[in-house]
C-alpha cells in the first residue's frame, strides 16, 4: 500500500489487518510514524524514478493512495509537482506492478477529475473528464496510465473517485468548518441551497477493500459516497448535533456572499460551500453489493469524538 500513514491509509490498514490481510507499507522513510501494517518497505519520494521492486515482491494487490494534494508556490511549480507524483509516479508504479506479477491495482482518484461543480445531474463514471486545476489534471493523467495497460495484461486495475472525505484526522476546510460550529461563529450560509456528496474515511476504507477483492470491479471507474447528499446548511446543522452545539446560521444572499469572499481572497473556499457537487454512487452499490457501514450522522459523530479528543 502507498499512503499507508496518511489520513485514509491509516484507517484502511486497520481494516485490512482486522480482516486478516498482511499489509506492506511502501513509505518515504524506513521508520514511519503510526500505521497498522506488518511490513515497511521504504521507497523514498514517489515519482518517475522510484524503485518499486522490493516493495512489490510477493504482493497480490496494490492500493495506491499516496498523492500530492497541495503545493504552495507559483502555478508552474504546482503543476510539475502534481504531475511528478500523481501522474509520472503512478506510471512508474503501474509498470513495476505489471512486471512484478501483481494481480490488481486500486487507484484512489478524485471527483475533481470530473470537475468542480454539478448543476442538476450528479457526476458519473461515464462523464467526460473536465478537471479544472493542476491537481485534478494530474489525477486524471494517473488514471490514464492505468487505462493504457495493454489488453491481456495480467494486472487488473480499478479506479475510485472520491468526493470530500471527512473523519478522524481531517484537515483544511472541513476542520475549519467544525471549529467555527464549535465556537459558535456566525456562519453566513443560511441562504445556500446546494447539494454535496461526502464520504466518511471509514466508509471509504470499506469500499476500497470491496473494490480490491470483487471480481466485477476490474477495469472500471467507481464513484463513491456516503449516499446522503446534503446542503451546506444541513451539513452545518448535522455537525452541530454531533458536537452538541447550536450553529449560528445567518441568511446572506449567495451573490453578496460570493462577492464578499472574492474581495477577501476567499472566493474559492466559499464557492465550494455554495456550489453543488454530487456523485452517482449507485453502480458500486448495485453492481458490487456495497453499502456504507456508517451513515452520515454516525460518521460525523465519530469525527466529532476525534475533534473533541484533539481539543482536549
Assembly form of the protein: single chain
Distance between the termini: 32 Å
Q: Could you describe the largest sheet, including whether it forms a barrel?
A: 4 strands, parallel
Bin the helical content.
40-55%
Secondary-structure blueprint of this entry?
Elements: H1 7-18, E1 24-27, E2 39-42, H2 53-56, E3 61-64, H3 75-100, E4 104-110, H4 134-147, E5 156-162, E6 164-166, H5 172-183, E7 186-187, E8 198-200, H6 201-213, E9 220-223, H7 232-243, E10 248-249, H8 254-263, H9 267-274, H10 282-288, H11 296-311
Parallel strand pairs: 1-2, 3-4, 4-5, 5-9, 6-8, 7-10
Summed up:
This protein is 43% helix and 13% strand.
Structure characterization notes:
This protein has 312 residues and is α/β, with parallel strands linked by helices. The protein has two domains: 1-162, NAD(P)-binding Rossmann-like Domain (Rossmann fold, 3-Layer(aba) Sandwich), CATH 3.40.50; 166-198 and 226-312, Alpha-Beta Complex (UDP-galactose 4-epimerase, domain 1). Helices cover 43% and strands 13% of the residues. It contains eleven helices and ten strands. It has helices at residues 7-18, 53-56, 75-100, 134-147, 172-183, 201-213, 232-243, 254-263, 267-274, 282-288, 296-311; strands at 24-27, 39-42, 61-64, 104-110, 156-162, 164-166, 186-187, 198-200, 220-223, 248-249. Strands 3-4-5-9 form a four-stranded parallel beta sheet, with helices on both faces. Helix 1 (7-18) crosses helix 6 (201-213), helix 3 runs parallel beside helix 4 and helix 7 packs across helix 11. The longest helix is centred in the first third of the chain and has 26 residues, at 75-100. It is globular and about 60 Å long. The protein starts with 6 loop residues before the first helix and ends with a helix. The model has no long low-confidence stretch (mean pLDDT 93).
Amino acid at each position: 500500500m502507498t499512503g499507508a500513514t496518511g489520513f485514509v491509509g491509516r484507517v484502511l490498514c486497520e481494516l485490512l489487518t482486522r480482516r486478516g490481510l498482511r499489509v506492506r507499507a511502501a513509505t518515504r522513510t524506513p521508520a514511519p510514524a503510526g500505521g497498522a501494517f506488518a511490513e515497511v518497505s521504504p521507497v523514498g519520494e514517489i515519482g518517475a524514478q522510484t524503485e518499486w521492486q522490493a516493495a512489490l515482491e510477493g504482493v497480490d494487490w496494490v492500493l495506491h493512495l499516496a498523492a500530492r494534494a497541495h503545493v504552495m508556490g507559483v502555478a508552474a511549480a504546482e503543476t510539475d509537482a502534481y504531475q511528478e507524483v500523481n501522474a509520472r509516479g503512478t506510471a512508474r508504479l503501474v509498470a513495476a506492478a505489471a512486471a512484478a506479477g501483481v494481480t490488481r491495482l486500486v487507484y484512489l482518484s478524485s471527483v475533481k477529475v470530473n470537475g468542480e461543480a454539478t448543476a442538476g445531474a450528479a457526476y458519473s463514471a461515464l462523464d467526460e473528464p473536465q478537471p479544472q486545476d493542476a491537481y485534478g489534471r494530474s489525477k486524471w493523467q494517473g488514471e490514464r496510465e492505468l487505462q493504457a495497460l495493454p489488453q491481456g495484461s495480467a494486472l487488473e486495475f480499478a479506479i475510485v473517485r472520491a468526493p470530500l472525505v471527512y473523519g478522524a484526522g481531517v484537515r483544511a476546510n472541513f476542520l475549519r468548518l467544525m471549529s467555527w460550529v464549535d465556537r459558535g461563529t456566525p456562519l453566513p450560509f443560511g441562504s445556500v441551497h446546494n447539494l454535496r456528496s461526502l464520504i466518511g474515511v471509514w466508509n471509504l476504507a470499506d469500499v476500497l477493500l470491496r473494490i480490491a477483492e470483487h471480481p466485477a470491479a476490474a477495469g472500471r471507474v467507481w464513484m463513491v459516497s456516503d449516499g446522503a447528499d446534503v446542503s451546506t446548511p444541513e451539513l452545518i446543522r448535522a455537525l452541530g448535533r454531533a458536537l452538541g452545539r447550536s450553529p449560528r446560521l445567518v441568511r446572506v444572499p449567495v451573490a453578496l456572499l460570493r462577492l464578499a469572499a472574492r474581495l477577501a481572497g476567499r472566493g474559492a473556499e466559499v464557492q465550494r460551500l455554495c456550489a453543488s457537487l454530487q456523485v452517482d454512487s449507485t453502480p458500486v452499490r448495485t453492481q458490487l453489493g456495497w453499502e456504507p457501514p456508517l451513515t452520515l450522522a454516525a460518521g460525523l459523530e465519530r469525527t466529532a469524538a476525534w475533534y473533541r479528543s484533539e481539543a482536549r
